[in-house]
Amino acid sequence: MKKLLYISLLTTLLLTGCSEDFLERVPESSVTSGNFYQTEAQFEQAMVGAYAAVRDAKGSIAAWCMGEMRSDNTHLEFNNTNRGPAYIEREYTDFFLDDVTSTLVADKYNRCYVGIARANSIIDYLPGAGLSQQVADRLTGQARFLRALFYFDLVRYFGGVPLYLKAVSGAGDAYLPRSSVEEVYKVIIDDLKDAIAKLPAPAFPQTGRATQAAAKMLLADVYLTQKNFALAETELKGITSMGFALLPDYASVFSLSNKNSRESLFEIQYQQGNQGQNSNFLYPFLPLASDVSKITGITSQNRQGGGWNVPTFEMIGTYEPGDKRLEASIGIAEGTGVVGDMAIEAIKSPIGYVKPTGKRAYPFIKKYLHPHSLEQNTDDNFPVYRYSDVLLGLAEALNEQNKGAEALTYLNPVRVRAGLAPSMQTSQTALRDLIAHERRVEFAFENKRWLDLVRTGKAIEVMNKNGEYIKAFHAGESYLPGTSYAVTQNRLLFPIPNREILIGKLQQNPGY
């Protein structure tokens, strides 16, 4: 049968080869770049794929392992019944023992480049599509925003990376050398300036697509990372007049009824159901247990999927008395049973919690806990930027320019919403620490903490101290390698995946 098929195909090729334009014709029976990027509807379909890549790159397991578990906010419940490579890689990311063979780290790297490739195709094919200028600008603005978003993650996690700015059409385009950090940031800034010029202003209710405000926020985040505080201030102040506002209640920010609300600048879109667009990040954060229905309301065993991104009791202790964000962000599962199979008996508030004798206590991330009908099938979006990012970003940018009094006008609304008294502190050093604390608790479990520690120069100090805390808290347990939490300058970047080193002849980051 295979031989007959081969002969049939060969005959067809020979007969078709008599036509002069054979090499220039696009197969009519398949979708290719030659016949797809032609109509507005097709470009919109491609844009959906580019947004889906955000879900893969910034809403995946790698995102919270590398952005949150890497920090001092969370740890893990050791699963002694599953020692598979995927589990060990997640643990080693937490322990600062990840290496060049980590498929978890490679997943983050590769998924960002998938998103970049999809954005590049849109950008490349739009000029020849004959669409109206308004439509072309709207699509180009979104694509360049998304490309900047992916490159911003890559440069912060990996340093200088190859810059692919055109759709790859052959092997010659596929293996580029690493660009410098400065070169990557220049592309990001250029993309965002163009996106700001082309994207529409936000309109409410929002659709979840990128707007001018989202691009300004991303550009301001870039400037904060580069310590260009004056430019960050300009971009952030531009957002304050665009109609955004803090919702009155912190917990309601994450409510399913407040997706893409006036507090949201950009969030990863999910929808529960059978279309493959559902979220499920709640479940990995729950205890290893035969039944987690006391938490979810749905009978579900979680003995192999849970135990990750567990808030530490040190993290709980950092909240000021009366801070409403604590109970909105963290719950405590109380019960009995062994590590690896908890029998959950009750859900308790973390406020003033004292574990009873003979009980186990498991803190879990509560802000993504909402009603759903099927296990592992939730409706929660994941926040990327909220209006409190604007306010706290402004407070930081102003304080770093010795404008402490003005910084308080942006810091205090965030504190007051949380039930705390306004700060009167104007000392630059003290206010810097207060703003860092506010960012930690305001954005807890939103994958920002590790990157904040790195950009503010606190990662080595904080994480070595956190390692001491973790080892003391889990003294007597044997799962922590003696070499864990030995954080040095080299560990502020993740390794370039080994496959990329081998096939692209790239230089590895120092220390790996």
TrEMBL record:
Key words of the record: Cell outer membrane, Membrane, Signal
Entry's Gene Ontology cellular component terms: cell outer membrane
Protein name, entry field: RagB/SusD family nutrient uptake outer membrane protein
Main location, first listed in the record: membrane
InterPro entries (alphabetical): SusD-like_N (IPR033985), SusD_RagB_dom (IPR012944), TPR-like_helical_dom_sf (IPR011990)
Compartments in which it is found: Cell outer membrane
Record bears the keyword Signal: yes
Domain of life where this protein originates: Bacteria
Stated family: Belongs to the SusD family.
Record has Signal as a keyword: yes
SusD-like N-terminal domain mapped to chain residues: 21-224
Domain RagB/SusD: 314-512
